[in-house]
Design a protein that fits this description.
- The protein is of the alpha+beta class.
- The chain has 4 helices and 2 strands, in the order H-H-E-H-E-H.
- It has one domain: Rossmann fold.
- The two termini are 34 Å apart.
- Keywords: DNA-binding, Isomerase.
- It catalyses: Couples ATP hydrolysis with the unwinding of duplex DNA by translocating in the 3'-5' direction.
Length: 103
């Protein structure tokens, strides 16, 4: 972590614990692999980027296919509740399923 903070390395791979209590103003990218438990968790993690107003920051969420894979799809009837292989919070699901034209 100290090498990252001092600018000796440009990329830091970290667990959630590494980010707790850190205020690093010049983070330009946050990339998360796999869907978090909730939208608020994702927004907290994404918010680690761009704390310096002079940096155009980006946050990228890479979601595993199981979030979108329906269980028992071939047996669904109209009006059935859709069940997915990976369950995520409804707020996060609405956010990740927004059509690209609305982004």
């Amino acid at each position: 972590m100290s090498q990252f903070l001092e600018g000796d390395i440009d990329i830091l791979l970290a667990t959630e614990a590494a980010g707790m209590g850190c205020n690093i103003p010049d983070i330009a990218r946050v990339v998360q692999f796999k869907a978090p438990d909730s939208l608020s968790t994702w927004l907290q993690r994404a918010g680690r980027a761009g704390r310096n107003v002079s940096i155009q920051a980006r946050a990228v969420l890479l979601i595993q296919p199981s979030v979108f894979q329906e269980v028992g799809r071939s047996t669904h009837k109209d009006g059935d509740t859709i069940v997915y292989k990976k369950t995520i919070e409804p707020g996060l699901r609405r956010w990740v399923e927004v059509p690209i034209e609305q982004c």
